[in-house]
Amino acid sequence: MKYRSKTLPRGALIEFVPRGAYVKVSAVDPVSHEEVSIVGDRRAGSETLSLEAVRKLEYVLNRKRAGKTDGTASSGEVIARGRRSEPPSGWDL
Length: 93
What we know:
Strand content: 15-25%
Oligomer: single chain
Order of helices and strands: EEEH
Number of strands: 3
Distance between the termini: 49 Å
Number of helices: 1
Mean pLDDT: 81
Low-confidence stretches: none
Strand order of the largest sheet: 1-2-3
């Protein structure tokens, strides 16, 4: 199965690192050098796992191109995180 991508016209570099019953799959865009990784079941097969890694890479690249990154609003301003005023109780541990 050949997966065609408009986001990745040159394709992606895929690496498989087996870890017991699971395998870590990394996908790298050769143009931007952006890298993502997933962990999946070895029994899923290399084609399925590489497809999922490429889809995640496309998602990350499209999100960065749209200007949306973690911790910032769409206008680029930093989102303030709330803080607790009281110390944590025994229920919070």
